[in-house]
Amino acid sequence: DFLCISLVNGFLQLRYNLGDKTVILQTFQKVQANGNTWHSLKAGRAGNEGYLDLDGINITQKARPGMNALDTHTDFFVGGVSSLNLVNSMAVENEPTSFTGCIREIVINNRELKLTVTDPKGGANVGDCDGTVCGYTVCKNNGTCQVENSGFSCSCPQEWIGSTCEQSIHCSQNRCGSQALCIPQPTSFSYICACALGWSGKYCESKIKFFIAKFVGNSYIKYTDPYYGKRDLQYSRISLNFTTNQTEGLIVWMGKGEDEDNDFLAIGLANGTLKIVINLGERISVPLIHSKYSICCDEKWHFITVVQNQTCIKVYLDEELILFEDIDPQRKYTALNYGGICYFGGFEIGRKVNIVTTGLFQKEFIGKIKDVVLFQDSKKVQLMKAEGYNVYNGNQGN
């Protein structure tokens, strides 16, 4: 499988192969090769349908039915490859050649790549295309960059300050405490403090401990499994207790939560019922939904266990087996390579659940979680020792 974007005789071309036939899309207009014009390119695929958009003019085409997943398992190359022999002969029209020109603002699955010296895995023969100390993202929040003798300066929009316009004026005198984040509230000319795990209060000034985690929205816990390297990932298991008065919400996401190629096991609520989604390397799993009865708003604790035995999935709710399905009888992928990362309640602040999960779940979890156990561990996960924000003591109050 592959997906390749290239220039062919002045036209932009997208080629992708999902394991069967290569699909080719080409723009109607040529790219102006004057070296002074920036072009906006959007390309990719949704299922088996590819799309190619150059400066707002869009074309689409579908691959054969049944071919829906891009299975590459390779590095991502920009501008060229480490060896031209790596390029599939069907990915280009002529002999492969490296790109000559400038590239900026690369966004893959809603995540921008940092085109710096240190962030990529490797590279060669790449220089500074802007030619000045400004670049295109030196000044944040739509600030304007000016080259100075001593370097650069930023002219900031009205509500932003700092050398790179990185700070909201509403947070310039904030009183947010230890490790807290200041969240500007422009409409009220104020701010709120997002408290780091283990802190609470208006300014996150009070130290807290808890065994029951209370999620209030815009909350998350990110737990890194210290035993991940020793796990047998063909036999995964997670169990926990939860209670909620909401009909939508992501309870757990076992996985890196970075792009659609990462394995994951997800538990959440959709329309008041339980929803389980598994990806073992190819998004082939149809969501498992238990619609027997609603588990929202009954003010009860519910105990859920999800067991993955290679491609067989069992789901227990309140110790009753409610779902049992083989998600891939062909056994193409059998291990849950989740990277040792577990998210509870949502993702990092600023990352929307519906975007990260590509619509599988709509909102952050609002409610309480306790008694989390991974695999067959004898001890419960100590959520207090993880990373997180806006999570409070669920032992107190409602």
TrEMBL record:
<dbReference type="InterPro" id="IPR013320">
    <property type="entry name" value="ConA-like_dom_sf"/>
</dbReference>
<dbReference type="InterPro" id="IPR050372">
    <property type="entry name" value="Neurexin-related_CASP"/>
</dbReference>
<keyword id="KW-0677">Repeat</keyword>
<feature type="disulfide bond">
    <location>
        <begin position="176"/>
        <end position="193"/>
    </location>
</feature>
<keyword id="KW-0732">Signal</keyword>
<feature type="disulfide bond">
    <location>
        <begin position="195"/>
        <end position="204"/>
    </location>
</feature>
<keyword id="KW-0106">Calcium</keyword>
<keyword id="KW-0245">EGF-like domain</keyword>
<dbReference type="Pfam" id="PF02210">
    <property type="entry name" value="Laminin_G_2"/>
</dbReference>
<feature type="disulfide bond">
    <location>
        <begin position="156"/>
        <end position="165"/>
    </location>
</feature>
<dbReference type="InterPro" id="IPR001791">
    <property type="entry name" value="Laminin_G"/>
</dbReference>
<feature type="domain" description="Laminin G">
    <location>
        <begin position="1"/>
        <end position="129"/>
    </location>
</feature>
<keyword id="KW-0325">Glycoprotein</keyword>
<feature type="domain" description="EGF-like">
    <location>
        <begin position="130"/>
        <end position="166"/>
    </location>
</feature>
<feature type="domain" description="EGF-like">
    <location>
        <begin position="167"/>
        <end position="205"/>
    </location>
</feature>
<dbReference type="InterPro" id="IPR000742">
    <property type="entry name" value="EGF"/>
</dbReference>
<protein>
    <submittedName>
        <fullName>EYS protein</fullName>
    </submittedName>
</protein>
<keyword id="KW-1015">Disulfide bond</keyword>
<feature type="disulfide bond">
    <location>
        <begin position="102"/>
        <end position="129"/>
    </location>
</feature>
<feature type="domain" description="Laminin G">
    <location>
        <begin position="210"/>
        <end position="398"/>
    </location>
</feature>
<dbReference type="GO" id="GO:0048589">
    <property type="term" value="P:developmental growth"/>
</dbReference>
